[in-house]
Write a structure and sequence with these properties.
The complex is a heterodimer. Chain A is built from 14 helices and nine strands. By secondary structure, chain A is of the alpha+beta class. Chain B has a single domain, classed as Rossmann fold. The radius of gyration of chain B is 18 Å and the shape is globular. The two termini of chain B are about 35 Å apart. Classes of the chains: A alpha+beta, B alpha/beta.
């Protein structure tokens, strides 16, 4: 306790001189702190933005396309095409408890859509009602998605992508209006809420028209699904769901459940895991850059502490002559370095947080895609903890080495110093 | 005794402190090794200082008198030889133990005062007491008393730059006395002062001596040396004469 109060006293006496130098040092540290804070915050923002973009396709989604058998099975040859039909969705939902929801999907990529004098050839997709929830396609206020009744009654209703709705109807609200889909009148029931979609197949959701699967079948005379999507009850159940799915359909269509070519899987859960790892990599990278910048600031502090200690060599010599133990002198120097680092860090965190907040506010109103992709910078608890830990460490080291040098000479030598 | 290194046969009587010996230097050598050249500043110095002596060490510049003072004051360590301070073998002690010895046993007065410029005179005098660990109340009383002794109570809260040379040296003397040292070492204490102030300072030293303090002055000023009771002359790293005043 006595030692501590002594160290504080010596520190205070040293702090009375060289204010300018202290300000410069603190600036260096503040700069480093701002750099690391911004880099990590942008990393975090980018991560969240990418995650959001991924969710634009739908969370934990598995998409299946039809293939051909590769293995001969129960007397049937290899090379048989496997084609799924809408009823298979029902079959899978009934027999695979690990699957929480599923939908069939039929695509016609060139259908004429006509509103008054505007005619466009676009992709039209037929889906089950569950599709909306699975693929994160939500209607804007005032509209709705395709429901069970639409499916049962083969209603001629259409759900439009937001870009497509704008192209066909301009700025006005298209809900309730009539649209000719392949010369048949359809009622527009909803428009897609704007979303950022990174993963896609068959074009973005914003640029397509969606109708009930039953209507699609009747209109275009299709029998087979283009693809099927499902979502496992939990991410952990995904491998089990996939196995059961293959067993059930393999039983119906007589293919080996281990035949990987019979049906093609796109497992976004697996993809998300890879993505997660990649993001950690990016964060480490950004953190290292920020950390290095901060360390440069730390070198600045060490440099200035060295200079300060050299400048005060005689003073330290006097203190030693008067009987200061080494600990008092090193303690005061380390304390000074820590105080500089701490104050600089405090300023840095303050300014950095202000910049992040400002940018986040600007982002919220930004229209540009690139800015949108950068995401909103976010300061998280790990970022703050990392920064503060690094600052403390730097302060300690930047003070310790000059301090050790200061007390390594004989007092007589220190007193001779000019 | 534990660190005796074979040179102490010559002046054996100084090993005992029963007869009031404070400083016992025996065969002290100091070599400055700058890498390329080795400079021998002291080549075998024997010196004994007893309690309540008033001693001047004289010598031309480069004679080794400052080195000698540094070793006596534990500011530097001898290359060879034995040094006892009040019977305690100083050679080979740890750095922190040496700091303690400087703190409690030795009071320093320097030619250029060596007051800490950012502290007040009061704080400067207080510093050795802080290192010693004197409780706050006792410390205040002690510092007050010291300033009374050197006659500077009205200057306690001034910074060194606001003081004259003579005043600064008096503050330094107060600081040197703070922990009631066994010995006061003064290295050219009047070197930076005008004659009048210099005389005043020597006057203070004389008074301290009369009160029972032991003082060692380093000087090349014969007039000052004449006011002491014993003059030791050093030249080329050896003691060439040791005379008691009449």
């Amino acid at each position: 306790m006595r030692t501590l109060s002594l160290i504080v006293r010596l520190f205070r006496s040293a702090a009375k001189i060289q204010r300018k130098r202290m300000v410069l040092t603190m600036t260096a540290i503040a700069w480093g702190t701002i750099a690391i804070l911004l880099l990590l915050s942008f990393g975090e923002g980018l991560k969240r933005s990418l995650q959001q973009g991924q969710h634009g396709l739908g969370e934990s989604l598995v998409i299946i396309w039809m293939g051909e058998t590769e293995k001969a099975y129960v007397g049937l040859p290899a090379g048989r095409p496997i084609r799924l039909i809408p009823d298979d969705v029902e079959l899978v939902l009934k027999n695979v408890p690990e699957i929480a929801g599923a939908s069939g999907e039929m695509h016609n990529w060139n259908v004429q859509l006509v509103n008054g004098r505007t005619a466009l050839n676009k992709r039209v997709v037929g889906v089950h009602p569950a599709y909306g929830e699975l693929r994160a396609t939500y209607p804007q206020a005032g509209g709705r998605y395709i429901d069970e009744l639409d499916q049962q009654l083969k209603r001629r209703v259409v759900f439009l992508g937001n870009e497509l709705a704008k192209d066909l109807f301009g700025a006005g609200d298209p809900v309730g209006k009539t649209l000719l889909v392949a010369d048949m009148p359809f009622t527009v029931i909803g428009v897609l809420q704007k979303k950022r979609q990174m993963g896609m197949y068959g074009g973005p959701d914003s640029d397509r028209a969606t109708i009930p699967l039953s209507t699609f079948e009747a209109m275009f005379g299709r029998r087979y699904l283009s693809n099927l999507i499902y979502k496992p009850a939990t991410d952990d159940l995904s491998p089990a769901a996939k196995r059961r799915f293959m067993e059930v359909l393999g039983g119906k269509y007589r293919f080996d459940p281990a035949d990987t070519r019979a049906l093609y899987f796109w497992d976004t859960i697996e993809q998300a895991k890879v993505f997660e790892k990649m993001m950690i990599g990016i964060e480490i990278f950004l953190g290292v850059i920020g950390g290095l910048t901060l360390i440069i600031g730390g070198v600045g502090v060490a440099n200035i502490m060295f200079a300060a200690v050299t400048h005060r060599t005689r003073e330290i010599g006097v203190q030693m002559a008067l009987g200061a133990r080494r600990l008092y002198i090193t303690g005061a120097i380390v304390l000074e370095s820590l105080a500089l680092t701490f104050l600089g860090g405090l300023f840095g965190i303050g300014i950095g947080a202000a910049i992040v907040q400002t940018l986040a506010a600007v982002q919220a109103h930004a229209k540009s895609e690139a800015m949108e992709f950068l995401g909103q910078p976010t300061i998280s608890v790990p970022i703050a903890v990392t920064t503060v830990t690094l600052l403390g460490l730097i302060g300690l080291l930047a003070g310790y080495f000059p301090a050790r040098r200061a007390v390594s000479v004989q007092p007589a030598e220190a007193l001779r110093f000019e | 005794m534990m660190f005796g290194n074979g040179r102490n046969g010559k002046n054996g009587s100084h090993d005992k402190d029963a007869n009031g010996t404070i400083i016992a230097l025996c065969g002290i050598r100091k070599v400055y090794d700058t890498g390329a050249i080795k400079v021998e500043a002291l080549c075998g110095v024997d010196l004994a200082v007893r309690e309540n002596e008033f001693l001047a060490i004289m010598g031309p510049s480069g004679s080794g008198k400052s080195t000698l003072m540094n070793i006596i004051g534990c500011l530097d360590t001898a290359t060879e030889g034995s040094y006892r301070l009040r019977g305690e073998q100083v050679t080979g002690l740890t750095i922190d133990r040496l700091a303690e010895i400087r703190n409690r046993r030795v009071g320093f007065v320097f030619q250029n005062f060596n007051l800490l410029p950012q502290l007040t005179a009061y704080e400067n005098v207080e510093m050795p007491l802080l290192f010693k660990g004197t409780p706050a109340r006792e410390r205040r009383a002690r510092v007050q008393h010291l300033f009374e002794q050197v006659g500077l109570t009205d200057r306690m809260l001034h910074r060194p730059v606001e003081l004259s040379g003579g005043q600064m040296q008096r503050v330094a003397i107060a600081r040197a006395l703070a922990c009631e040292p066994d010995i006061i070492l003064a290295d050219e204490p009047t070197g930076n002062l005008d004659t009048t102030s210099g005389r005043d300072i020597v006057g203070i030293f004389e008074e301290l001596w009369k009160k029972g303090h032991t003082l060692v002055l380093i000087t090349h000023d014969a007039a000052i040396a004449a006011r002491t009771r014993r003059v030791v002359r050093v030249q080329d790293g050896v003691v060439v004469s040791d005379e008691l005043a009449a």
